[in-house]
Amino acid sequence: MWRSVFAFTGDPEVTDDAIGEAFAQALARGDEVRDPAPWVWRVAFLVAGRERQRRASLAQLGDSRSYELPEPISEVMTALASLSPNQRLAIVMHDYADRPTDEVAALIGASRATVHSHLSKGRKRLRALLGDDDVQER
Predict the structure, then answer these.
(1) Mean pLDDT of the residues in the chain
(2) pTM for this one?
């Protein structure tokens, strides 16, 4: 889960906080959460997405904290960052975290067909940015 959220955010601190918050919320809700695993995944990505947006707003105001990644991971992270948030989330959840399309659709709030469209367009963009050898069609 950590690697998937990190691939989405590109920030280890945001990743740690999002996953911690997701588990804390699950524990606080107790029996309200009927199926904890997908619920925690969804909440972790929602929290991470909100934090990414907050930090992007801060960066525009001049807060320039960054995390340098070793090559070639930084190339992949840069390529992922160029995708739309839904394309990035679909690719990370489906292709990297091996989550089913239905779960990705619920997370994005879209249909399965829309998720397939995000996957197709995102993979095509990644292939163009990284080269054909780095991205495999599933």
Answers:
(1) 83
(2) 0.53
